[in-house]
Amino acid sequence: MTIQKILLVDDSKTELHYLSELLVKRGYAVRTAENGEEAMRRLSPEHRTALVETHLRERPYAEVAAELGIPVKLIGLGEGPDDLAPFEPEGFVDALLGEA
Asked: How far apart are CA 21 and CA 23, in angstroms?
């Protein structure tokens, strides 16, 4: 079985660490980047998917996603208080990866 390699982009070190741990536990190889520029440097031909946080500080996520040139799934918390819900990490990763 081939291990899927994922590029995870988020400007929060805490979220990078937490999501990376969850993905590794599920058998993925994860490379992280804290911004779009770092993502471009860390991208390799083996990456098949990128998970990009929607509220990157230094550049619009859509610009980063377009430059990566691989399928991108966007991750974000919503736009307002009504979007908030208790965080369920396993369900969150399931939804990102289409495993639910």
From this structure: 5
pTM of the model: 0.73
pLDDT tens digits along 2-28: 778 888 988 888 888 888 998 899 899
Tally of domains within the chain: 1
Is residue 30 within 8 A of residue 8, CB to CB? The reply is: yes
Up-side HSE of residue 60: CA atoms within 13 Å toward CB? 3
Range of the domain at 51: 5-97
Closest CA to 9 of 77, 85, 68: 68
Residues near 4 by beta carbon (within 8 Å), at least 6 away in sequence: 27, 28, 29, 48, 49
Q: Record the tokens describing residue 85, joined without a space.
A: 């819900």
Contact residues for 18 (Cβ-Cβ < 8 A; gap 6+)? 89
The DSSP symbol for 4 reads P
